[in-house]
Amino acid sequence: MPTEHPFTELPAIARSPRDVHAIVDTPKGSRHKYKFDEALGVFRLERVLGAGLVFPFNFGYIPSTLAEDGDPVDILLLMDEPAFVGCLVVARLIGVIEARQVEVGATRAERNDRLVGVATQSPTHARLTALSQVAPVLLEEIEHFFVAYTTLEGKRFTPQRRGGPARARQLLAQGIKAFENNH
């Protein structure tokens, strides 16, 4: 049974409709993948990535959302420096990497999209308003990271398409609705 904790009560939308709350669960540059454990009310070490793999940017989730995989909606945060586990970041959605993921040997694939946002306080990235403004080679590197790290977990992550901020907000709205229907 989930415990009462500020992370479980935090709304997805921040101060303005275009801004979201994001909780960092894995800092940029980390080989350690953390996950918030609702039952215990703490972040726990979920896994250690293989040698040579580190998160390219801060990674986390948007609270009060539910994705198809049963977890909150994922978000990759373009920021200048690593944040800390549990850091609340106000971010603006700039796009999404839509993807399917399947465990090796399984027959059913599930959606495992990665929303992409920029920290509103980031001097380097704050001017970005759409995923199309991010260097194509950087987007390819990000996608490759997710493919590589899930492969080592016995899963196949397949990017399907990239979308802009309107598509990201649409997927966020679906995640908010799924959370409301489930709670």
Features:
Inorganic Pyrophosphatase; globular; 183 residues; alpha+beta; 36% strand
Task: Describe this protein's structure.
By secondary structure, this protein is α+β, with helices and mostly antiparallel strands. It has a single domain, classed as Inorganic Pyrophosphatase, CATH 3.90.80.10. The protein is 21% helix and 36% strand. It is built from three helices and nine strands, in the order αββββββββαβα. It has helices at residues 6-9, 136-151, 165-182, and strands at residues 19-26, 32-37, 42-48, 58-62, 73-78, 88-103, 110-111, 114-119, 155-163. The chain has a five-stranded mixed beta barrel. It has a two-stranded antiparallel sheet with strand order 2-3. A hairpin with a 4-residue loop joins β2 (32-37) and β3. The longest helix is centred in the C-terminal third of the chain and has 18 residues, at 165-182. The relative contact order is 0.19.
Task: Please write out the topology.
Blueprint: H1 6-9, E1 19-26, E2 32-37, E3 42-48, E4 58-62, E5 73-78, E6 88-103, E7 110-111, E8 114-119, H2 136-151, E9 155-163, H3 165-182
Parallel strand pairs: 5-8
Antiparallel strand pairs: 1-4, 1-6, 2-3, 4-5, 6-7, 6-8, 6-9
N-to-C CA distance: 12 Å
Shape: globular
- Helices and strands, in order, run as HEEEEEEEEHEH
User: CATH fold name, please?
Assistant: Inorganic Pyrophosphatase
- Strand content is 35-45%
Task: Give me the Rg, rounded.
Answer: 15 Å
What's the average pLDDT?
92
Give a quick account of the main beta sheet: strands, pairing sense, barrel closure. Answer: 5 strands, mixed, barrel
